[in-house]
Structures
1.
Amino acid sequence: MSDERPHRPRRGRQPSPATVREIYRRLRSALGPLDPPRRLDPLEELVVTVLSQNTSDVNRDRAYAAMRRRFPTWEALADADPHELADAIRSGGLANIKAPRLLAILRELREREGKSLDLSWMRRASPGKVREYLTSLPGVGPKTAACVLAFSLGRAALPVDTHVFRVARRLGFLDQRTNAARAHAVMEDAVSPALRVRMHVGMIRLGREICRAGRPRCEVCPLQDLCPTSPSVLKEHPTLRRPRRNGRKGVA
């Protein structure tokens, strides 16, 4: 079979199934366990994901804790004044954008679900129904819906955030015409259901630690020989190459 061995894909072609499996194996080997975050209630995961946009996990958690201290119930949060909510989540960044977005979501949910704001029905619903429902909410896109599916409901989804999008494009999963919205369908088609959530975790960690925006650290990347982008990066920075020692490449 043509995909029996992993290989570096040519530009414009997606990694083969064997290469996808090897990418996952190497990410797990280099970065350690790729377990997803602790499972949250669907509504809690939805809110946490909105707060996580364009900030660190530490600042997100700080903002969430401050918000729940100020507004201890979902009902109280839904009734919050936008300025008071923005003040409570200030540590998470973009508070003046996230506060009205959260309120719009919660108030729409209250119209649909009643005062209880209970989304536990999602645990029994199909992934397609959950995705369709979530993306019909104001300001909720495919990444947020995928996070709820993957991290709250344990479904085989692969959220594509900024880090995953960058890494996936450099690895050849996505071409230049694929936007962030379309990327979710492309990635879930390329990665088997059993690997999707952990592949997401691995690609995020790789994007934060190695495959950074600007110049990626290809010289220390465990996927260097599988990545169609690494040859051009290393060619531009030849001093990053280390001589072979004992038959193995050195790394910085």
Note: The longest strand covers residues 244-245.
2.
Amino acid sequence: MSANQAMFPIATMARVLGVSEAGYYAWRHRPPSAHAQADAALLKRVRTIHTGSHETYGSPRVHAELQAAGEQHGRKRVARLMRAAGLVGASRRRAGVTTTRRDKEARPAPDLVDRDFTATAPNQLWVADITFVPTATGFLYLAVVLDAWSRKVVGWSMANHLRAELVLDAMEMAIGQRRPKDVIHHSDQGSQGGFNWSLQHGDGGWCDGGSATFGSGLAG
């Protein structure tokens, strides 16, 4: 009734809804209940925590912050207040974040390991991938090269873009640290724009006379 009183008289709405006009005015002037006041106070704390997280915290993180401060509130209550106030956190699965771009017109590279990611010695097989890390100021992208034998990261690179140099920097770190004589570098099908240039760059003497053979797995 309050929301529509500019369009319809209170008396008319009361009659249509079957409520007392006097009861409506009594409700309007009634002070908030203790529960409503407690919700308002809690929502103020929730807003402070949510704003302090640069609006990245959802209800589980906000609830954890409240608990850490010694405040005991139900998770469902925190979620209800945030939902009613339109407060949402940043999702790790935001739409539109793609770390692999497959060229449908290009011939896929062969799967040189036939999905067998075991190795009997260091620097026989490297596997590579890209992931993204959500931060308060946007996404950072992480390219990693892993030695399949030791399961250790041998090269990595982080940037705020997905250009070819992201994976090149990770590869160059791996080559610089390990200097392999003969290694298979395995990644999924598809690559960052311009990554063919990295193959040419690899032929230019990365491995001190050795060789790096590039293959890919199935797109996933």
Note: Confidence is low (pLDDT under 50) at residues 193-211, 216-220.
3.
Amino acid sequence: MAFTTRAKSTITIMAIAGTMIMYVETMVTPALPVLSKFFSASYDSLSWIITSYLISGTISAAIFGKLADIYGKKRVFVILALVYAVAVSFGGFANTLTEFIIIRAIQGLGMGMLPVAFALLNDELPKSELPLAQGIISATFTVGASLGLVVGAWITQNYDWQWSYHSAIPIAFGLFIASLVILEESPYRKRETIDYGGIFLLSVGLVSAILVLSEGVYWGWTSYLIISLAFLAVTSFSLFLIYENTVVQPFINLKLLKIRNIFLANLTGLFASGGMFYLFYTIPPLLQDPSPAGFGKDILTSGLVMVPGSLMAIVFAPIGALIVRKYGPKLSIIIGTGVMLVAFILLYFNRGSVTSITEDAVFIGSGTSFVFVGIINMIIISTPRDSTGMVTGMNTVFRNIGSTVSPAVAGVLETQFVVPAMVGYIPEPLGPIPFTPVYSTFPSDLAFDYIYVIGFITLLISLIFTFSMKKVRVNELNEVLE
């Protein structure tokens, strides 16, 4: 059955949103070494450029996913598109790392558009057609990632990193105008209230945990402050679980998490997202850092290296959707996780050249298509239409937790395990040497080894969770068959 005109309009708007969000997110990645010099910041501190955005986006996705169910999905989507456009407009004007992190945190609120987008698709389409629609949207994520990695790298190399942000301004406001004019409001509503207590407890737990992971190497793992933050994180998460079981309308519906497939799909999304961000956070410094730490390549090269992987993601996303429709989402997730496991094995053993790293990235891009198409469909086909905003928001929470932790872990390892490399010289003789070399430290091979081993273990856990899921599929009558 062909998509209706209204469904096509909705898919088009969601495709623009997915492309833009991923463009803005990934255009920063090739510029991390440049941002390190611009802000005079370590890689560990730079991890907050990503984690501040993801923490904010995590909370936003859950809040606005539920608000969309209550007040209307179009209304919430349009508001978030406006907030996002305004935040992007300020991104290129940051003068300090603190300013940039704050802008990124506000920008992260726009991530709430993603669960609302999936919920709108669910309202527009019969369940038998959802896999293909989700595959299309998943493919646009990788289109945006490809544009961000290449165009963002080219702009940063030939102009300044600030112009990467400036280039996104017309796209962001174009999305806001298009969503305001073209989208139609969903008829599905649900009477609920926002669980601010649950939001507060989860936020405190997340921020405390990330501070422990990112600052432990500087403040000391056994320092009073780190131990206190670790205790605060554990306490907040524990209270969150207890509290959510007592409120009538919880922030995260733990009753839904008692359903095996929803619970395991969310955990799989958490670990798979973590694995993907290990790649995003390690390849730019590995390629751009000077020898012997890296290959000393320019920013554009580091962006181009990841393009083949993004192109494979575009190719395999619709294929993953067809597998979901014919065999169910479980098989798609298994295939994707297996491919991503191979990628991390290759990254550990086969990264001796730029070509080798490019080949490894192809496996990551291919695998993520199957994984995320499978996960979102596993969750949506089991959810009533009036709860899709909340459930997809909950899934975004889990995925963002994984995406938040992995850059922090990678940043710690890249800061702790380093190797010196010559970055310049002073025209003054040093003994028999006619100049004085200037050295700086960069992440060593050992740092990347540890990161890729952790990434492999993360995805192995994800694969175990996937095998434990019940097999489900969708028939032409929009029923879930088990």
Note: Residues 195-250 form one domain.
4.
Amino acid sequence: MAAPMFDADALIEMFQNASARQGAQLKKAVSDTTLAALQGRELTLKNIRGVVKQVADAASTGLAKNAVAGVDPEALLDKAVAGLDEALLKAVEAQRTTLATLAAQGADLHDKHLGKALADLEKMEDGLFSALKKAAAGAGTPMAAAWAPVLEKMQAGGTAAGAQAAAAAEQFEQMAAQMQATVRSTRAASMKAAQALAESYAAMASGVLLGMSEALQAGGATAKKASRK
């Protein structure tokens, strides 16, 4: 497994010693840890999934060792997922802002790299769920049982980050389509103008020919007058 880009031991210890009343602290710790890890990597879906799994693994490892009275592993895992969602919401906003900036500068949203970024946004929800499922599957029987209702709830209700990512992807897909339509309409307008000129070509040619004939006639008349003198 790749070395985590955060202090996994510190997060494990926090979950190991957490009480039932420390849910808010755990949520913030997970959110801050996830953001710190993401900031050290390119914001690709692959890297996001990797960070999510590593953070979830640390939470599972710590909770599996937690012997504090009254602790409900499911409730604390809910807080961990909420922290992950909060961090990924900021990551999605960072991606949306970057895409908007590039689009405003005229970047082609169907470019290979930007197209992949849009595809990653569309798959964000599934990627998050997939990473958590892998973490749950590797957590051992007791923790896997605690993860089950958390994952079921998440799959049924979705996440804020997933919803925001899907909305951003749709927004930029529409923008890309509009940009293509604009290019097509501009090209069509140019072709229409060229066709209009082509259709009037015969009339224009007649006018030019008429001008040439009048000039020739005027020149001929002047020549006759000169010869009579």
Note: Residues 165 and 211 are 66 Å apart (CA to CA).
